[in-house]
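Usage

Read records sequentially. Each one opens with the input sequence:
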Amino acid sequence: MVFRFPQKVLFKHCDPAGIVFYPRYFEMLNDAVEALFADVLLWPFEDIHPTGGVPTVAIDVVFKAPSRHGDQLILEIALKSLGRTSLGLQTTALAGDQVRFVANHTLVLVDGTGRPAPWPDAMRQKITEQMDTPI
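and closes with the structure output:
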C-alpha cells in the first residue's frame, strides 16, 4: 500500500539558504506516520500514547535533491515489513516526479514502560491487509 501525505514546504522548514534544513524532514516524516496511523490504521497516536507508543528505532535516509520554501511535496509511505513488535516503512518524498529523499524506517510498538510489545491481533490484521492495498 502507498499512503500519500501532502506537505507544503513552509518558511519554518527552511534554513537561511532557503532550503529545507534536514532535521525538518524528520518532523515531516513523523507527521506523515501519525496521519497514516490515524487515517488508514484507525489507531491515532492520541489513543496509543496513554499506554505506550510507536517510536522510530531505526532510520536510513538518502537525500536526492533539495526542497525549497513553497515546494509542494508528497510523502508516499509504503508498509514494507511486519515483525512481532516492529513495522518497516519506506517513505519517498516527491515534488512532482522528482525524488527529494527516500527513508527506510522501523517503528516498534512499546508498552507503558518503553519495552517492545506485540502488535494487537486486530492491528496486525489491519497492517497486513494494507501491505498490498493501494490508497
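Summary fields computed downstream for this record:
- The mean pLDDT is 95.
- The first helix runs from residue 22 to 39.
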